[in-house]
Amino acid sequence: MKIITVKDSQQGGKAAFKIFATALKNGAQVFGLATGSTPLTTYQELVSSNLDFTRAISINLDEYIGLKADDPRSYHAYMQKNLFNLKKFKQSFLPQGDATDEQVEVERYNQVLAAHPIDLQLLGIGQNGHIGFNEPGSSFGEKTRKVALTASTIEANSRFFENEAEVPRFAYSMGIGSILQAKQILLEAYGSNKAAAVAKMIQGPVTVACPASALQKHPNVTVIIDQAAAAELKN
Ligand code: GLP
């Protein structure tokens, strides 16, 4: 893993932007995208740049089950607001949270991924080490599936909802197996509440107890962290 330590998330967004720009220049066409607070500065950099994504495809990691695409709390709405309304992509895929048949939706998404291998996958990390919505215990071989969110993730994500009871209990998520298929992976983490997960991801054992530790098995991973998120790393 290549580790880049930055002062704050603003600088992190600039460092992540450079990685996107280089990938695009080198012919990347399929970008795996993430939601949450972490990638916001990266999206701001992409939006204010003149990079051209009109021939690129995006594929998002996950979506809450039960939320319609136009629900402002959905990851669809987040992506529209923070990126797609401001930077044009050729085509964008997300799991459909209100799909009537969950199994059909899972298969559809796995076909999307099979048809469009990801060149660069952007990731955040949960405080419990989750990537996408792959909570601790998720096997490293999984593709897209329906997952149950843990209590700590529900609590952490409740800030985007009126209260904790409103947070959906299930999501569709690309599996760790799908994530590891990406040619290149870029993970960003900012703030002291990510420090323990970051240390386990980089220096802990490769274990399903820390889903992000699976990234140690991938040959092309860059991690961008600020000093607070780097605080529990040894050396
Ligand atoms: C959610 C998302 C993840 C994200 C994580 C961290 O659970 N499913 O993809 O990485 O939260 O979010 P944040 O960046 O807001 O800390």
Which short descriptors sum up this protein?
alpha/beta, Rossmann fold, three-stranded antiparallel beta sheet, 7 helices, 18% strand, binds 2-amino-2-deoxy-6-O-phosphono-alpha-D-glucopyranose
List the helices and strands and how they pair.
Elements: E1 2-6, H1 9-25, E2 30-33, H2 40-47, E3 57-60, E4 62-64, H3 75-84, E5 91-93, H4 102-115, E6 120-123, E7 145-148, H5 151-157, E8 170-173, H6 176-180, E9 184-189, H7 195-203, E10 221-226
The structure holds 2-amino-2-deoxy-6-O-phosphono-alpha-D-glucopyranose.
Report on this structure.
This protein has one domain: Rossmann fold (3-Layer(aba) Sandwich). The chain is built from seven helices and ten strands. The protein is globular and about 50 Å long. The longest helix is centred in the N-terminal third of the chain and has 17 residues, at 9-25. The chain has 235 residues and is of the alpha/beta class. 30% of the residues lie in helices and 18% in strands. The chain has helices spanning 9-25, 40-47, 75-84, 102-115, 151-157, 176-180, 195-203; strands at residues 2-6, 30-33, 57-60, 62-64, 91-93, 120-123, 145-148, 170-173, 184-189, 221-226. It has a seven-stranded parallel β-sheet with strand order 1-10-9-6-2-3-5, with helices on both faces. The protein has a three-stranded antiparallel β-sheet with strand order 4-8-7, with helices on one face. Strand 9 (184-189), helix 7 and strand 10 form a beta-alpha-beta unit. It binds 2-amino-2-deoxy-6-O-phosphono-alpha-D-glucopyranose. The site of 2-amino-2-deoxy-6-O-phosphono-alpha-D-glucopyranose (GLP) has 14 residues, from helix 5. 2-amino-2-deoxy-6-O-phosphono-alpha-D-glucopyranose (GLP) is lined by residues 34-38, 61-62, 124-126, 132-133, 153, 157.
